[in-house]
Design brief:
The complex is a heterodimer of chains A (157) and B (400). Chain A is built from 3 helices and 7 strands. Chain A is α/β, with parallel strands linked by helices and 157 residues long. In chain A, a hairpin with a 2-residue loop joins strand 3 and strand 4. In chain A, helix 1 packs across helix 2. The longest helix of chain A is centred in the first third of the chain and has 12 residues. Chain A is elongated, with a radius of gyration of 19 Å. The radius of gyration of chain B is 22 Å and the shape is globular. About 5% of the residues of chain B have low confidence. Classes of the chains: A alpha/beta (157), B alpha+beta (400). Chains A and B meet through strand 3, strand 4 and helix 3 of A and strand 6, strand 7, strand 8 and helix 12 of B.
Chain lengths: 157, 400
Amino acid sequence: MNDTEIIEKAKALLGDKALEFSHPALRRIFLKVDPNDLLKAVEVLKKDLGFAYLATVSGLDVGESFEIIYHFANAFSQLNLRTQVPKANPHVESICPVIPGAILYERELQDMFGLVVDHIPDPRPLVLPDGWPAGNYPLRKDWKYERPPEKIPGEKS
Amino acid sequence: MKFTVPIGPQHPALKEPISLRMTLEGEVIRDADIRLGYNHRGLEKLAEEKTWLQNIYVTERICGICSHSHATCYTQGVEKLMEIEPPKRGIYLRFLVAELERVHSHLLWLGVAGHEAGFDTFFMYTWRDREVVMDILEMVSGNRVHYAINTLGGVRRDIDDLQKKKILDSLAILRRRTEFYLKIGANEPSFVARIAGVGRLSKEDALALCAVGPTARASDIAQDVRKDDPYGMYAEVPFEVGTATTCDVLGRVVVRVKELMQSYNIIEFLLKNLPDGPVAVRAPRRAKPNEVVSRYEAPRGENIHYIRSNGTDKPERLKVRAPTLANYPATVVMLRNGFIADIPLIFAAIDPCICCAERTVTLVDGRSGQENVVLMSELRRRAQERWKKAPPKKDAVWPF
């Protein structure tokens, strides 16, 4: 199964759910869907096209919205499923019911971008420490790290 | 009566300090919970503030053992963004170092596996032989750990005929030694019996939990980026993907020994067919707005970088997924229904080298809530004791 066949089949299966296809290089397919169709699209990719292996989930801050890219791969090709959610209401559906291995990547998204992954089986923070102040999402573009002033014990004030 | 056993998180020898909380019933693990983030360095944020060239050295420092794999994954992605093609000799040298790194990583892992199984002779042998490949790496790149051989558009150093001959001579030694390891299982049935049936991960679980690398290949999934999605010159190199069907630690050992042999073949092929010419081309300072997904088969499994450029000399976003993260959900399944004495072995089998340090496990007594710090050596002693009591697994066979 080559890239063109995969794109044709995905177009036929997803119909108008698939908003945009691009094929920038050999074995690299990008596909855009609406966040409401995400779970359905992942299901089709897994069951009908054999993309059962999720490599990772990337989040991006693109101004007014967040872009989320699910990187899938199988033995023939590599497919990136893209979706966009507005920053004002950053909710995305969990894909763990279809792909259980996505759990760590979704937890990382919640930590780093402040996205809310609905129906996630385990919503605890993954990479940020326990005492991390709420509302600080490091990978948002407007977040800047400010080093707290250094205090030396016994220092003259 | 259930006990909870926390492992970690402070663990000086680990690349990724990790906290595991085991729920035990007697000696049997019923559930395991993972807590990460003790070594989160904010590297993806940092990368957005560094130039394309500086980021090679940032990504190289993600990992101490497979440093070359992250740097290569990043570099080949950025080269696509900048629309430059490195010269063929540069590509061959880049992946020569990549395969040498795989050899050193697998030899290191074999030693750790032998050590955790109570077979310290094997550990001494493999680590002695690992010095041979470390010497080659030092000769080729000038460094033993962070090779720093990659640059945008090729590699930074060339090799001459004398070095080529030295590598081939050393390779003969390594090949002879690895053939000896192939026979070790046949001569040492207690080693095979200790690792057979431990840390089971069925093919279905490995698929569902998106396991990668030797962990997936030991569960009979022939998944290798070098074969599925050939990058660099792998499309023209003959090699096979090593798999095993036993789905346990034995299978993971078998896969890595097979991969060692394949790596020697690849190194030999690369040296014998090394093209002439320059090793690098000049790279521009900026990259046009675009995005790229770069995949690389690191010694531990698939390494994936997603890079987006915005027209400046710095990346808009660099997303890194290291193979060990992908194997954590599978590790939880492997640990479940195993024995507490098998924790070091199972954990070592996905190759995060948790077992190098002392003082990792705190045993919490479920009845009194009292915590006892147990040294790794004590845990290992318990493992060996359990092994003495348990009957050897009769049907375990060394597959070579």
